[in-house]
Design brief:
6-stranded mixed β-sheet, Rossmann fold, globular, 10 strands, 4-stranded antiparallel β-sheet, alpha/beta, 236 residues
Length: 236
């Protein structure tokens, strides 16, 4: 059985303008294994968001190959990419993107409706600690609680891969660590491959694999011998 979720080979993303070419991704090669927590780390402008976009099929590379298991997603049509995202991926963003006139339960239910094999919503709400608030509306929740709803909604569809774009960027240390602990729990409980894009170096200590980026290139890839609990990391 193929346990390599993503295999990238010589991936480039080039933007052309009057000023010339900009290499958002410059000859990227690496693999991501099933069930890993992967942190893509780098400063603003390093190419990490572009990396998320090409892995998730939101954007396509200029050249090179990106395989999702045995499928070369860099060759898929727009419709095929939409189906790939719908059937395989979940997304958590820095902005929560909750539907304001739906309850917490109904927001999570939206994610479940995108899947042929969704997870149990009540069990998910218990995991994220929001069972008692399932009939409330987003405006009645704190930022950290809304992020937990967004996580539950993304996980409800039972995705193979969960993409997290700066998931703690709008949160304070306490709420940030609670959010990261929740992601660790989901990885452990469901075996979900989790890819976190962040500029916060402390989050790297939670990962199986850390991919550091700078100026469109991968500057370092390393495996953590010891994975820390979210509660124990030093906040940057």
């Amino acid at each position: 059985m193929n346990n390599t979720v993503y295999s990238l080979k010589n991936v480039k993303k080039i933007y052309k303008s009057q000023a010339g070419k900009t290499y958002a991704l410059d000859d990227i090669t690496f693999d991501i294994q099933k069930g890993e927590v992967v942190v893509i780390l780098g400063p603003s402008g390093s190419g990490k968001s572009t990396m998320l976009n090409v892995l998730s099929g939101i954007d396509v590379p200029t050249s090179g190959k990106i395989k999702y298991f045995d499928t070369d997603i860099s060759k898929l049509s727009d419709i095929e990419l939409t189906n790939y995202r719908k059937e395989n991926l979940g997304f958590i963003f820095q902005s929560y993107n909750l539907i304001p006139n739906l309850t917490i339960y109904e927001n999570v239910e939206l994610g479940a409706h995108l899947s042929k094999s969704p997870l149990d919503i009540d069990k998910l709400l218990k995991i994220v600690g929001l069972v008692d608030m399932k009939n409330k509306f987003p405006y009645q929740l704190s930022g950290g609680q809304m992020q937990r709803v967004a996580i539950a909604r993304a996980v409800a569809k039972n995705p193979n891969v969960l993409f997290c774009d700066e998931p703690t960027g709008a949160l304070d240390e306490k709420m940030g660590k609670q959010t990261l602990r929740l992601l660790q729990d989901i990885n452990e409980k469901y075996g979900t491959t989790i890819i976190i894009v962040t500029h916060n170096p402390s989050i790297a200590y939670l990962a199986n694999t850390v991919i550091k980026m700078n100026s469109g290139k991968v500057s370092d890839i390393h495996k953590n011998d010891k994975i820390m609990n979210a509660e124990d990391i030093r906040w940057a």
